[in-house]
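Hi R.,

As promised, here are both runs. First protein below:
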Amino acid sequence: MLDPASREDAVAPHRWRSPALGESLLLDLPQGPLECFRRGAGPALVFAHGWLANANLWRKVVDLLAPRFLCVTLDLPFGSHRLPLRGDADLAPEGCGRLIGDALAALALADVTLVGNDSGGAYAQIALASSPGSVRRLVLISCETPYDAFPPPPFDGLPAAARDPATLARLLGALRDPEVRRSPAAYGLLMKHATDAGAFDSYVLPCLEEESILRDVCKVMAAAETAPVHAAGRRLIAELRRPVLFAWSAEDPVFPLAHAERYATVLADARVVVLPDAYGFIAEDQPVGLAAALAAFVLSC
């Protein structure tokens, strides 16, 4: 079911993955091959990133948690991945939620804590609402709630651009410039602090270097819509009885803290942890605080 992935993929800058993520594995899913990384032992945490990021987003958090937890980081087909899916893979919101659910089923882990950030949090909610399976706890980190649009401003123009791969490629091509990457129109509203060049290259370059990766992210972005995310939220509010943690930044300029707090009040078992000096990519900005919050949540429920 799980086979080691090729280590040759780590050579090119756009294909680099941090050694801190652990062993590279391949999941053979109905949608095609999905790469993930596995490190540590103990209670299982499965991490889902959002658009134009990959498993590297969690490298610092995994390094802190692996001594006490099994950390599995998914490399989802959101534009920064290494392995394209099948051409007929469903990458609409419901399809991305199903992809996460299929990955969890393939991993065959028990008592899973599913962790989602940014659009990965939106898809994690869809996955849990449609098929809870082995998920016993949900962690949402600065992501869409039932009170946000998907995608939110200022990224709400991406679905229209993604309808034409050439248009999206031209738009994202500006990200080759490190200064552009830090602008508010790019990652400047997602990361408060600078990250290392290796991780940044792995986020922005894959869909610019490989046509098949661009194809996948165009499908993901062009199909994005708010309704499936809100429908999943409504179902979780009505039916979910499993613990939920909202790990948020009070300074987040994209996903308001007030929306997380409102969501938490209508779920059966939810709590909010506010982390300082960060934007939405808290795993980049404040990995120590985030790792501590995750550990305390998992061990307490």
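And here is the second one, sequence first, then its structure tokens:
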Amino acid sequence: MIVDVHAHVIVPEVTREAGGAEPWRPSVRWEDGAQVVELEGREIRSAVREFVLLERMLEEEAGSGIEHVVLSPWVNLLSYGLGALEALEVCRIQNAALAAAAAANPGRVSAFAAVPLQDPSLAATELVDAMAAPGVVGAEVAASVRGAYLGDDRFLPFWEAAEANRALVLVHPTTKGFDLPVFGEHYLWNTVANPLETAVTAAHLVMAGVLERFPALRLVLAHGGGALLALRGRLRHAHAFQPQARARLSESPDASLRRLHYDTITHDPDLLRSLVAYAGADHVLLGSDHPFDMGTTRPVDEVRELGLTPDEEAAVLGGNAERLIGLREDG
């Protein structure tokens, strides 16, 4: 089975069109052939494929060779800016809808839950509750929460619950992680800031010893880990001599980096091939970043063009995902 682990959806139940005037609700429309998502007074046009209607999304995914999709909420709807209880309600609306989508499409759809990570204990409880529904396989979390990166001790209750419940957790950039004027130019907020934010939070997780403390934790880094692997030598070198760098991590940074999983969205075959070689074919999972302009409509072809062995190719295209989300008994 070919499985896409990185595809976003706005479930209809949270849209303004579904009813409700809460400011966190987005409005989605098509205008002159372009999809427009309106949220808090901003118009967003980067979602260039279907974002709301599941059947149309599945048709588009099938056209790319995808047989099973793991849906995740639009990162803007993780609602970290809201109070924890209001965010929990937003998460529960989405999680119920995602669970229903998985139930209505067995064998075709699984889902990552939304959790109110501004309150890690509450997020841990919601993760467990959401995963009680068949087809909900874990959660999507953003790379930072109100300026705190994911290696911070405040998030330990969530990581403990995620490991204990064998959750798969997709780590995705916030899309607004750095308040620097340069990122407002030349689309750099997306091409540079997003992968940089993923690298920062992943390095924080590694050097804070979170992966060493929770060795069975299953984390997937969006966008091939962002800029993380370009920094592995610096992390390794610092850990060899700098007390600050080894204060929380006893093992080599490489051991933790290789515990992480990575999606395939790199837009560079040499980089993707290097990622598979470093992380191992068993730690790389197919992703498309549907429906965004920085995603890919050729995820399957891009993997098949790498020249991997048949076993490696099969693992990346779907075998790893099947194992991690429980579609195979050895998961």
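A quick note on the second one: The longest strand covers residues 3-9. Let me know what you think.

Best,
J.
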